[in-house]
Amino acid sequence: MSEPAIQAVIAPVTPLQQNCTIVWCAKTLKAAVIDPGGEVPRLMAALKAKGLTLEKIWITHGHLDHAGGTAALAAETGVPIEGPHPDDQFWIDMIPESGARYGMPGAESFTPDRWLGDGDTVTLGETEWEVVHCPGHTPGHIVFFHRPSRFAQVGDVLFKGSIGRTDFPRGNFEQLIHSITQKLWPLGDDVAFVPGHGPMSTFGAERRSNPFVSDLAIESMNV
Ligand SMILES: [Zn+2]
Ligand SMILES: [Zn+2]
């Protein structure tokens, strides 16, 4: 079965330079905004400039810089919010309080139209994406994976040369390592990923050189 291609553009938002990503089905030009942390007018302008129709809002996890603009974007467009996993509800509930503290007043909490979990699939235009539950940075963190394109949006699970923080409430280092090595690596070394912050990389490159989760680092951790 051949699926239409996808395209993606990264639009860093918020003072935390979070990699909000606009992905779309190249055939239908139906788009999803993944992790609209804020700056909704700018995201709307980017969609319009590319001639895209917003179909979904996808959320990797409930942190302010990833989800702070969700309520505003949903209110303005009426499109459904899909994700994260329900274990991130407590983070979503804290968005207004975190927003006030971190210079994003007006950031609102929300209830997703569809919570997501491991093995779920989500559609965008004529494309189908897989959902992988990757707890550790937050308990309800998920990853969006488009298998035919070898493309993933991994939020704050994994970065080029680093991994997500685990010192937040209900963060868990062992769980994060497990998520990366047991859930992401099996998807394939050739998978290119957009992390929540910083430049893109591939799973294969991180397995070779990431100081936290390279094959060598994992091997020495087990000794
Ligand atoms: Zn985060
Ligand atoms: Zn983040």
TrEMBL record:
Boundaries of every Metallo-beta-lactamase domain copy: 17-197
Organism: Caulobacter ginsengisoli
PANTHER family, A to Z: HYDROXYACYLGLUTATHIONE HYDROLASE GLOC
InterPro entries: MBL_Glyoxalase_II, Metallo-B-lactamas, RibonucZ/Hydroxyglut_hydro
Phylogenetic placement of the source organism: Bacteria, Pseudomonadati, Pseudomonadota, Alphaproteobacteria, Caulobacterales
Obligatory cofactor(s): Zn(2+)
Entry-linked Gene3D superfamilies: Ribonuclease Z/Hydroxyacylglutathione hydrolase-like (3.60.15.10)
Domain of life: Bacteria
Keywords: Hydrolase, Metal-binding, Zinc
Pfam families the UniProt entry points to: Lactamase_B (PF00753)
Designated name of the protein: Glyoxylase-like metal-dependent hydrolase (Beta-lactamase superfamily II)
